[in-house]
C-alpha cells in the first residue's frame, strides 16, 4: 500500500478562507468610503484659509481696501500676484467652479462657487460647511 500525500485544499478550507476575507473586507472598506470626502474637506479648508490670508495681505498692502470681487472677480488677486489662477471649488455643482459672488450676509451662494461676505470680510466656499467639514448638496446660507 502506498501512502498518498494530499496536495489540494478541501472545500471546507477554501470556504473558511473566503469567510475570513469577507469579514476583513467588511471591517476595512467602510473606513475608506469617506476618505474622498475627508480629503476634499481638508483641501477646501486649506484653500479657504490660504485665500483668506491672501485677501488680508491685499488689505494690508492697499491701505485697508479688500479686493473688489463684485466687479473684478479674481482678476485683482491674480494681477497683484496674490494667487496664480482662479481657485476651484470642488464642492460646487456649478459648471464654472471659480465664480465668486458678493453679499452683505451669508456664507455661500446657490449660483456661484465662492462667496465674499462684505460684512465680516470673509471668503466662503459655497456648498461647504467649514464648521462640520461636510460637503453639502444644498448651498450654504
Tell me about this structure.
By secondary structure, the protein is an alpha+beta fold. It has one domain (37-135). The chain has 4 helices and 5 strands. It has helices at residues 11-33, 35-61, 69-72, 75-79, and strands spanning 100-103, 114-117, 122-125, 128-129, 134-135. The strands form 2 sheets. It has a 3-stranded mixed sheet. The longest helix is centred in the middle third of the chain and has 27 residues, at 35-61. The protein starts with 10 loop residues before the first helix and ends in a 6-residue tail after the last strand. The mean pLDDT is 88.
Per DSSP, the total helix count is: 4
Q: Span from first to last CA?
A: 85 Å
Gross morphology is: rod-shaped
Helix/strand/pairing category: alpha+beta
Percentage of residues assigned to helices: 40-55%
Instruction: Compute the average pLDDT.
Output: 88
Along the chain, the helix and strand elements come as HHHHEEEEE
The major pleated sheet works out as:
3 strands, mixed
Radius of gyration: 26 Å
Strand content: 5-15%
DSSP E strands, number: 5
- Low-confidence parts, pLDDT < 50 over ≥5 residues? none
- Strand arrangement, major sheet: 1-2-3
Question: How many separate structural domains?
Answer: 1
